Amino acid sequence: MNRQSRLNPPNILTLLRILTVPVVVSLLYTPQGEEIPYTRSLITFVLFVTATVTDLFDGYLARRYHMVTSLGKLLDPLADKLLVCAAMIMLISSHRVPAWMVVIVVGREIGVTALRGVASTEGLVIAASSLGKAKTLLLNIGVAALILHYPVIGIDAHLFGMVFLVGGIVLTAWSGMDYFFRFVGEIFKH
């Protein structure tokens, strides 16, 4: 595969998503305990939501137009993990997300990524489950609402975000265990 075919539209969208990570981090940066101003929260919310929506488009384009590449298979899940984990880490200092929740999410993502690496060295592919996809959706909604934080049209965005984040944390743990047991099952088959 030549270089040009690797830089196809889905992979460019994925790379743009990765490039938004440092921007999101800098926008969410605040000295310990200080609140992130409303305008910065709103700008970061729009950027985060736009970045997460590109995930839908890059996957659709790659499958629809047969532009799936090894680079895309590697970068797409990495982009999702970087965006969510970086945003969650940055929300700790403003007390929008408890650190223990971030530890669960980051720990699961590192663990699953490590298992995928081991599986690939054994020639195994353990497909993403519907649990993992549901986890990603709940975390994305929760983190987006927590980035926004301030009430919008009478809705407590922080409370809304925490409800989705708690659901995402439950699915994070569940899908991590599911992935681990499927990995162990595949290892014992071979």
Primary descriptors:
Four Helix Bundle (Hemerythrin (Met), subunit A), mainly alpha, about 190 residues
What's the arrangement of secondary structure elements?
Layout: H1 3-6, H2 9-28, H3 38-64, H4 70-92, H5 99-121, H6 130-148, H7 157-189
Helix pairs in contact: 2-3, 2-4, 3-6, 4-5, 4-6, 5-7, 6-7
Structural features, described:
It is built from 7 helices and no strands. It has 190 residues and is an all-alpha fold. The protein has a single domain, classed as Four Helix Bundle (Hemerythrin (Met), subunit A). Helix 2 (9-28) runs antiparallel to helix 3, helix 2 packs parallel to helix 4 (70-92) and helix 4 (70-92) runs antiparallel to helix 5 (99-121). It is globular and about 55 Å long.
What is the domain tally? 1
Give the total of beta strands. 0
User: Any idea what the radius of gyration is?
Assistant: 17 Å
Q: What fraction of residues sit in β-strands?
A: under 5%
Mind telling me the CATH superfamily name?
CDP-alcohol phosphotransferase transmembrane (TM) domain
Fraction of residues in H or I helices:
over 70%
Here the CATH topology equals Four Helix Bundle (Hemerythrin (Met), subunit A)
Low confidence ranges: none
Which architecture does the CATH hierarchy give at level 2? Up-down Bundle
Q: What characterizes the major β-sheet? A: none
Q: So what's the CATH class? A: Mainly Alpha
Count of runs of 4 or more consecutive helical residues: 7
Distance between the termini: 31 Å
